[in-house]
Amino acid sequence: MVNPFNPFDSQSTGVNTPPLNANPFGPEGEKNPSTAAGAAPAVTPPRGIAPRYLAIAAVTLLAIAGIGSWALLSSQTAMQPAPTPSAAPPPPSPAQGTPDLGTRRASDTGGRVVDLLSSLTVVPELPQLPGYERSCSPGRGCVFGPAWKDIARTGCDTRNRVLASQLRRVEFKPGTHDCKVIAGLLDDPYGGTTIEFSSADPRGVEIDHVFALARAWDAGAAAWPYDKRVAFANDTDNLLAVSGELNQAKSDSGPGAWLPPNAAYACPYVTKYLRVAIKYQLAITESDRAAAVSACEK
User: What pLDDT is attached to residue 53?
Assistant: First the structure.
C-alpha cells in the first residue's frame, strides 16, 4: 500500500530506488561503469529524495531571496528624503534691469561727490592771504608764472592747446604747425550755447581756471614752491574754454558763490572743481561743499 505521507516512497514518486542489497556488479560479475576502477563515482542524490523536490526547494529559496532583496530596496528608498525642488530664481530687482537714465546719473554722480568730499579739508572760510599777484609785468609778483607757458614742451602754448581740444571746426594759422587757433565753434559748457570763436575777437572765448588761481592761493598754493604753482596754472585738468562773459562773471569764486547758468553742467562743474582740489590738496569751504552736494542731488 502506498503511504501518502511519505514523500520518499517509490510508489508515490514514480522513481525506482535501488534496494539496500542491490548488486553493484553487472549480470556477468563486472562492476558497473560508474564504479569501475579509476572512474569517478556518480553523484546521486541522497536515497529516497526525488530530483523534482530538490528543484522545487531551489526555486523556493530563490524566490524568497528575491522578495527579501526587493523589500530591503523598497525600505531604503522610502527612507531617503524626497528631493527638494529647485527654488525659482527671484525676480530681477530694479537695479538689474535698465534703470532710468536720469535717476542713474543723479545717484551715481552724487555718490562720487560724497566720496570726493570725504577726501578734502573743509573750512568755514578761506583766509585772505597777502602776496597774490598774477601779472608778470616788471615789478609784479608773477606768482603763477607767465600766462599759458608751454610747460609740456609740445611747441604750442597751453591756451591754444585747450582751444584746439575743445572747439569744433578748428582752423589754425598757417605756418604754426597746427598750433595757433584762429577760428572754431565752442559748445560753451557754462552757458549751454554755441559760440563762434575768432582770434580777431579773443574775448568772446576765454580759458577759465575752474579752481581759480587767486582762490588756490588762499586755499594752500601760497605755500607751494614756484614751479608747482606754474604747473598748476597750466594743468589742463583745471582748464575749460568757456564764454568770456561768464568767465568774467565767475571771477575767483568757488561753487558756494557761483555755479554755471547751464544747470545740466552744474554737477560736472563741481565734480571737476573737487577733483582738482584733491589733486593739489587744496581746502574748500563749507559753502562749496553744500553747493556740490546740492548740485549733484538734482
Answer: 56
Look up residue 74 and give its three cell numbers. Answer: 523598497
Give CA 120 to chain center in angstroms: 28
User: Going by DSSP bridges, is the β-strand pair 122-123/284-285 parallel, antiparallel, or unpaired?
Assistant: parallel
Q: What is the pLDDT of residues 219-259, one digit of tens each?
A: 999 999 999 999 999 999 999 999 999 999 999 999 999 99
> 122-123 and 167-172 as β-strands: parallel, antiparallel, unpaired?
unpaired
Rounded CA-CA distance 205/237 in Å is 18
CA neighbours closer than 13 Å in the CB half-sphere of residue 266? 21
Euclidean distance between the first and final Cα of the chain, in Å? 119
Query: Between the CA of residue 172 and those of 83, 181, 187, 188, what are the distances in Å?
Result: 76, 5, 18, 20
Listed in sequence order, the DSSP H helices in 27-170 are 51-79, 101-117, 158-166
Do residues 188 and 242 lie in contact, with contact meaning Cβ atoms separated by under 8 Å?
yes
* Whether 181 contacts 197, CB under 8 Å: yes
Tell me the C-alpha distance between 85 and 46, whole Å: 61
β partners of residue 185? 168, 196
Q: Which contiguous run of DSSP H or E holds residue 187?
A: strand 181-187
For residues 283 and 221, what is the distance between their CA atoms, to the nearest angstrom?
Answer: 10
Domains of the chain, by residue range, sit at: 101-123+131-297
What are the φ and ψ backbone dihedral angles of 243, each rounded to 5 degrees?
A: -60, 130
Burial of 292 (0-12, 13-18, 19+ CB in 10 A): buried
